[in-house]
Amino acid sequence: MKTAKIENWAVVSGETNPYQAPESISRHIRGEVYGHPNFPDGDTVTTSTLVLLEGGIAKTQNTQYSLGHPEEKYTAWCIVNGYNIWTGSSGSCKPPRM
User: Are 69 and 38 spatial neighbours (Cβ–Cβ below 8 Å)?
Assistant: First the structure.
């Protein structure tokens, strides 16, 4: 499994349609990646679908990401909505609706 670090990150939704059940919407991390073999350090990337987000670790099928500092706007949204970014308490940390 590849490993990398993501800074200035947020959880984002995958593509959806108006008829899609909310529980079937995929979740991804968007942020600046470091130490990934396929991307230059500092590139902004969106991961493939998350299979785990817990305790400062985000895993996709092929890569494990160490989560650095989250994006400020995302942190503020999580605080206002009662989500703990690091543990996913009160539900998982879902992306804000824009």
Answer: no
The residue with tokens 């200035």 is: 8
Nearest C-alpha neighbor of 13 from the set 54, 46, 42: 46
pLDDT at 23 (0 to 100): 77
Contacts of residue 16, defined as CB under 8 A and 6 or more positions apart, other chains included, come to 25
Please, are residues 59 and 50 in contact by the beta-carbon 8 Å criterion? yes
8 A C-beta contact, residue 60 and residue 42? no
Q: What is the pLDDT of residues 21-31, one digit of tens each?
A: 877 888 899 99
The pLDDT, as a whole number, for residue 17 is 80
- Mean pLDDT score, 15-20: 80
Residue with tokens 């503020």: 76
